């Protein structure tokens, strides 16, 4: 009789595991931007749900037998213990999936655009912006430790560039794609072997105060002297992307 109770608990845990895994997998479709093309996202959810159901059944059986051996056999204690263990495992799995995903930050339900203006060194001629010649690339990167774990390519708006006080200012923009890691921006020719990247002092979820242009950065060099005009600098702001029904 004790084993029959444990098997019944395992079956219930399997059903619970199926639904919990399906719920987490459905969230991962959005978190990891899994394509729905040819039903890929649906197959993913089904596969994860079935795996969760099988894992939940085995976890439920093991937990039920441990409770029966260590305390006393019984449907109530075994079911409560098995479901509690299952919820704990599902909670940790959901947290890990969310923490490792590149989820775009939002504010008031709107995604956010990052606008960056790069001020070039004063060594460029005023006839045309530097980015009008050659193949340039603007990148926004997520940094973990000292490693660039992911990066995205944005748009360079050379047609909107302006020449001010002897220096070219070239605007760029990109949709903020992740809350993870520290951020870094780069504007350089694609074929460049050495580029200057700038650490972006932007929190995971930027608030309304970041809608105003920052000051020009960096402010100073390593030895405390003002940032020279013969080196590139930048400034940035964050702009909400209007919802479709607001545009």
CATH C-level of the largest domain: Mainly Beta
Residue stretches low in confidence (pLDDT < 50, at least 5 long) are none
Q: Please tell me the total number of domains.
A: 2
CATH topology of the largest domain: Immunoglobulin-like
H and E order: HHHEEEEEEEEEE
Report the oligomer: single chain
Q: Please report which band the strand proportion falls in: under 5%, 5-15%, 15-25%, 25-35%, 35-45% or over 45%.
A: 25-35%
Q: Assign a percent range to the helix content.
A: 25-40%
**Rg from Cα:** 26 Å
Q: How many DSSP E strands?
A: 10
Which overall shape is indicated by the principal axes computed on the Cα atoms? Answer: elongated
**CATH architecture of the largest domain, please?**
Sandwich
Number of helices: 3
Output mean pLDDT.
90
Q: How far is the first residue's CA from the last residue's CA?
A: 65 Å
Briefly note the structural class of the backbone: alpha+beta
Largest sheet: 6 strands, antiparallel
Explained architecture:
- With 247 residues, the chain is of the alpha+beta class.
- The chain has 2 domains: 2-100, no CATH class; 106-246, Sandwich (Immunoglobulin-like).
- Helices cover 35% and strands 25% of the residues.
- It contains 3 helices and 10 strands; from the N terminus they run H-H-H-E-E-E-E-E-E-E-E-E-E.
- The protein has helices at residues 2-31, 40-70, 75-100; strands at 106-107, 110-119, 136-144, 147-153, 155-156, 162-164, 167-175, 182-189, 197-200, 233-240.
- Strands 1, 2, 5, 6, 7 and 10 form a 6-stranded antiparallel sheet that branches. The chain has a 4-stranded antiparallel sheet with strand order 4-3-8-9, with no helix packed on it.
- The longest helix has 31 residues, at 40-70.
- The N and C termini lie far apart (65 Å).
- 23% of the residues are buried.
- The model has no long low-confidence stretch (mean pLDDT 90).
């Amino acid at each position: 009789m004790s084993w029959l109770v444990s098997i019944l608990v395992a079956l219930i845990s399997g059903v619970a595991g199926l639904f919990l895994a399906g719920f987490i997998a459905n969230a991962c479709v959005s978190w990891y931007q899994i394509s729905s093309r040819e039903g890929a996202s649906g197959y993913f959810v089904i596969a994860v749900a079935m795996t969760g159901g099988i894992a939940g059944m085995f976890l439920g059986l093991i937990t039920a037998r441990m409770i029966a051996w260590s305390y006393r056999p019984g449907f109530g204690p075994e079911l409560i213990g098995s479901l509690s263990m299952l919820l704990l495992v599902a909670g940790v799995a959901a947290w890990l999936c969310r923490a490792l995903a590149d989820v775009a930050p939002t504010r008031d339900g709107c995604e956010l655009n990052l606008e960056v203006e790069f001020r070039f060194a004063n060594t460029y001629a005023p006839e045309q912006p530097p980015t009008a010649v050659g193949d340039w690339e603007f990148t926004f990167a997520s940094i973990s430790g000292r490693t660039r774990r992911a990066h995205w390519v944005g748009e360079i708006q050379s047609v909107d560039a302006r020449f001010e006080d002897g220096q070219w200012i070239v605007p760029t923009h990109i949709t903020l794609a992740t809350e993870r890691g520290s951020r870094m921006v780069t504007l350089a020719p694609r074929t460049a072997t050495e580029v200057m990247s700038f650490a972006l002092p932007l929190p995971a979820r930027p608030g309304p105060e970041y809608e105003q242009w920052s000051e020009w950065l960096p402010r100073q060099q390593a030895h405390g002297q003002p940032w020279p005009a013969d080196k590139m600098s930048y400034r940035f702001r964050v702009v909400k992307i209007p919802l479709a029904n607001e545009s």
